[in-house]
Design brief:
The complex is a heterodimer. By secondary structure, chain A is α+β, with helices and mostly antiparallel strands. Chain A has a single domain, classed as Arc Repressor Mutant, subunit A (Orthogonal Bundle), CATH 1.10.10.10. Helix content of chain A is 50%, strand content 14%. Classes of the chains: A alpha+beta, B alpha+beta.
Amino acid sequence: MTPPELDLVRGTLDLLVLKALSWGPMHGLAVVRWIEQTTRDELQVEEGALYPALHRMEEKGWLDADWGYTDQNRKAKFYRVTAKGRKHLAAEHERWARYTSVVGLVLAARKPGTAR
Amino acid sequence: MRRVFRLPGTARRIDDEVEREFAFHLEGRIEDIIAREGLSRDAAEREARRRFGDYHGYRQAARDIDQHMLNRRNRMDLLETIRRETRQAARALLRAPSFSVIAIVTLALGLAATTTVFTLLDRVVIRPLPYPNADRLVHVGTLWPKVGHGDEFGISRGQYFFFRQHSTTLQDLLFYDRDIMIVPGDGSHPAERVDEMDVSANAFAMLGLELARGRYFTTADERNPDGDPRVALISYEYWQRRFGGDPAIIGKRLDYGANPMTIIGVLAPHARILDATADVWIRNHLDPADPPVNNHTHNAIGLLKPGVTVEQAASDIAHIQQLMRAQYPAVYSDYFYDHTGFAMHVSALRDFAIGSSIARALWVLFGGVAVVLLIAAANVANLYLVRIEARRQEAAVRTALGADRAHLAVHYLSESLLLAVISAAAAIGLGYLLLHLVLSIAPQSLPRLEEVHLGWRSVAFCVAVSVGLGVAFGLVPLAARGVDVDTLREGARGLSTSRSRRFIRHGLVLAQIALGVVLLAAGGLMAKSFWRLRHVDMGFNPNGVQTMMIMLPHTAEQPGGPSVATIWQQIIQKVQTIPGVTHAGAGWAIPLNDGGCSGLIVDQPLDPANAGECMPMQAVTPGYFEALGTKVRGALPTWDDVDAGRAPLVVTQAFAKRFWGTENAIGRGVHPYNKRIPAFPVVGIASDIRSEGLQNPPVEEAYFSILGPPGTRNWPVSSAMSLVVRAPTLSQSAVMTGVRRVLADVAPGAPIADAKSMEHIVAESTAGTSFAMLLLLISAAIALSLSAVGIYGVISYIVAHRRREIGIRMALGAQAGSVARLVIGESVGVAITGAAIGVVLAAVAMRLLRSQLFEVSPSDPLVLAATGVALVVIALLSAIAPTRRATRIDPVEAIRAG
């Protein structure tokens, strides 16, 4: 097994899934494909880990699930973000943005005293 | 209400769905990999599984989450349903406040009465005794059918050892006796009498009696060479009372009587053997080497080996007694056996402690309150029938709108359950108060009283019964058919009540009246019994008589000083001089308190076989009969007689008749115990005294003089006697003060105990009857008022329903009188039928009461007839108001509104 190039920070998977589903209802496979494309395979994750995450988010009320049919007329379980899920996504998004900008600031900082 | 029907309903469906979801994922990925990387299907599948990771782990995780989610939603759904139904039910009850209040009050009354008596029954009769292995404890005693009135006596020391040695069914046997001891006064406490318990050392482990501090008896160190105990345990209560809970109590000495003892331990609070408590516990002195003697006065409790039944133990003990009889023919002679009917008796300790008559009485009372509950339930059922009538339209509309029977059932059930739960809550509160009331009037002779309180079992009983009733009431509407759309068509002008429903309603009233008769009859019989009991000729006059027990300390008799007999004489003669005291005397016992029997030898008996009978006997001083108010024919013993050694003897009429066949027995003689003591001459015949309970026949008793004829040995003067003082104008405390002053003068350090007025003793002896009577009468009163309410309700309903008919009759010229007759006639018919059924029922049911009754037949015609008439009168009174309403109906209005 090759080690993942970039480890997934805990809780980040939820964020990615919510973001993926924010475009519309998807089944788990589509979510994985979306993450793959969006991150250009940089972010590697055991695909199975997605499902406990999906079910847990359903339990928390962020997602609704329903069985439906794919374009190929196969039966699949589709997930949809609820209003509560959207609110959570917005909050998390905001938090991430702040976090990355702070980390960016720190990394861009110069040695004390050298700046004027 | 939004239900989430999408959720898989079972664990299996959860598994299926997770499996399908994962399969879909893998399949899609395999296709992706084949398309993108051109691998073979097998290789692609392997790659897809690799990327998926721990398939089983993730599957399990997903399942767990789904299961959890499902459980939670189910719970929420259920809670939501309950909340919704309760809210609707509460609204429905609030819409009909008079129905709700009457139903709740009625049910709560019935439930409270039932719960109260159930608590009593449960705590006293049903529950095991509060000992470890309580179900294996047995009482080992003896029966003497030709001597005692069905009483049970103890066993002998010899038997104790013999049984322990030979029994194959008993694992252990404990032995105990009660005694009293005199505690001399000190600076802060007056002299007092304390109860003492002489027990075998195994008693503590067998009965689970625990220590608050110190240690139990051990075998080694506990007796003086002469057998007197050297160490003692004291009760927690005595430790607190006498020693103020002194933390350094262990090792202190009890300097009571001749032999001082060292305190080695304090028992935990409320230590008792059955109902017997004691302040000082001493290890009894038993020597297996002592030869067996015929003295069966000791209490014994056995522990059965596991798996052994009481019957097996009984036959084992009976068999061992035969061995003993064979081994000790001198003690257990054939003559003795023939004469006494002596037999061993082994019974479950609980049966022994409670007694069958108390168990039966409590069950009868429970039956009584169950009847009250039935009447209450019939009332509420009737209310429900009326209510359904009123709600048929509503039900029909619901049915028409698509509600199915199940929905209606849930609707009605939740309403009646809410009613039941509210009633149960009210009943528990009410029952708590009732129980306190009942306990305050309960006779002291009721065993295990200290264990009675309202616990969770009583609450569970109350809730279970009320929920059962709630379900029954909820089903009434479904049982009453006709919840269909036809009702809509019938409309408000619908036909009058259907025949069947009218039948049910009448049936319920009928049942109420019949049950009311049964209860009232029971109360009436008990009341008559009680009246008879209190008016029986007791053979003494308790008014203005005070009694108390006086014990002379062992120091009272000094060498060269007055004898014990002289001290008694001084005490009694000085008490007699207290202003207000008319007579005073003393005896071993007072009527209605425990007495014993001893063998007597009667001179010239009618039947020589009776000569050595064990008869109630005691020694009394002059003044005893005068103080009690007992009439004596012939001469009353005087102090002159005693001083002169004439040893006057008084026997009761019953005694004289039994032994000599004549009441004129003056001049005959009786030897107490045996012929070695000279005969005492009979000087007087006392009128019959009911010493062994007012309900029992008069005693055949002999009252000996405290001093025997010249040359008497082995007739010791008792150092403890009951003083009887007749002082009609003095209060109890005035008498006590006077006696105390006399004692301080004549016998310093002699304690007074058991001070009771004779009236109190009489009341105590009939407390069982008055208790049962009160409870039955209270039940009957509740039952009667409930019946009255029920009858009133039904007649009112009938009048309201027949308005139209009555209106038409009146329009056609019927007089008010004939209308009244019409309505009253219907009530009278029901009432008389109900009363008749009730009288028949009562005549049968009252046989259960037989053992509680005194000189009253269970089918006493007067009581039964009076009860029947009372119920009919109550029914008529309840019908008056509705009847008046009927006669005032305005025909025009009634027909128009119809």
